């Protein structure tokens, strides 16, 4: 097994590389932070610096050579940005990477999406996976929904590659550059952390390693007989694809 991890210099991607290397899995990691890439290389990963928004087919061919599983963690996750920026990073790059993965024989493609595509400024519990708001909350949510449609179309047209979509909620843990830093900024600015509904709201959170474990389960041979799928991840990963039916 050889896994390509995109977005490997960010929180989820870096945790994914560490998880795989601890299992002795061969890893090719890609990202834009070359300093972080050197640390990944010291773990035993093969680091390929790349910006997926600028990737061309010749680079993709080299990047995907010998890869049977791809974990697509790369994403533009800013709460602010232009439609063009989100489309370029989250939709177009995903489409091109998926097409190249199919062309070069990748067997499993795990795409990391986001439950932000559910958000409509109302409280929900036990949301169905196909729920969509009348209007997306921001460009990030819209672009992640669009990226899922890209994956769904690729899955329908290419049965030899198994696609899975995961929507981890509220990622946190080692190497976090998003959630904890924002909480720290809030603490610094306000002197406290404001809790949703004064602390009465139930909020799902996902530890990085739990999300990575779900990616691992979705990549196992026991899942080959299952159709391409999309799933959310609870804090205990009990809704990740294959978690119940494909344990070894």
- The total count of strands amounts to 9
| N-to-C span | 16 Å
- Please tally the helical runs, counting DSSP H or I stretches of 4 or more residues: 7
Number of domains: 1
What is the overall shape? globular
- Assign the structural class, choosing from mainly alpha, mainly beta, alpha/beta, alpha+beta, or little secondary structure: alpha/beta
Mean pLDDT across all amino acids: 88
Pfam family, one: Epimerase
InterPro entries: Epimerase_deHydtase, Lipid_A_modif_metabolic_enz, NAD(P)-bd_dom_sf
Protein name: Short chain dehydrogenase
Domain NAD-dependent epimerase/dehydratase: 3-220
What would you say this structure looks like, in words?
This protein is α/β, with parallel strands linked by helices and 248 residues long. It has one domain: NAD(P)-binding Rossmann-like Domain (Rossmann fold, 3-Layer(aba) Sandwich), CATH 3.40.50. It is 37% helix and 16% strand. The protein is built from seven helices and nine strands. The chain has helices spanning 11-22, 34-42, 57-64, 83-103, 139-157, 179-190, 208-218; strands spanning 2-6, 26-31, 46-49, 69-72, 108-112, 162-168, 171-172, 206-207, 229-233. The strands form two sheets. A seven-stranded parallel beta sheet has the order 3-2-1-4-5-6-9, with helices on both faces. Helix 4 links the parallel strand 4 (69-72) and strand 5 (108-112). The protein is globular. The two termini are 16 Å apart. The relative contact order is 0.14. The model is unreliable at 233-248 (pLDDT under 50).
């Amino acid at each position: 097994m050889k896994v390509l991890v995109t977005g490997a210099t960010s929180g989820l991607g870096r945790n994914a590389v560490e998880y795989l290397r601890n299992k002795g899995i061969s890893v090719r990691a890609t990202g834009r932070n070359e300093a972080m890439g050197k640390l990944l290389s010291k773990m035993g990963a093969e680091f390929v610096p790349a910006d997926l928004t600028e990737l061309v087919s010749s680079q993709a061919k080299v990047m995907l050579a010998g890869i049977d599983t791809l974990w697509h963690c790369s994403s533009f996750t800013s709460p602010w940005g232009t439609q063009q920026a989100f489309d370029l990073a989250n939709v177009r790059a995903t489409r091109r990477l998926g097409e190249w993965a199919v062309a070069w024989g990748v067997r499993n493609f795990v795409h990391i999406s986001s439950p932000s595509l559910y958000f409509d400024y109302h409280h929900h519990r036990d949301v169905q996976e196909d729920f969509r708001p009348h209007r997306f909350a921001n460009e990030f949510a819209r672009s992640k929904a669009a990226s899922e449609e890209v994956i769904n179309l690729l899955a329908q047209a290419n049965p030899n590659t198994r696609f899975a979509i995961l929507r981890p909620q509220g990622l946190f843990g080692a190497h976090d550059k998003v959630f904890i830093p924002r909480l720290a900024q809030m603490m610094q600015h306000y002197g406290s952390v404001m809790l949703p509904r004064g602390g009465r709201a139930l909020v799902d959170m996902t530890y990085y390693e739990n999300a990575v474990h779900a990616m691992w389960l979705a990549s196992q041979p026991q899942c080959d007989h299952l159709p391409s799928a999309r799933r959310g991840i609870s804090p205990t990963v009990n809704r990740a694809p294959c978690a119940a039916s494909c344990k070894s």
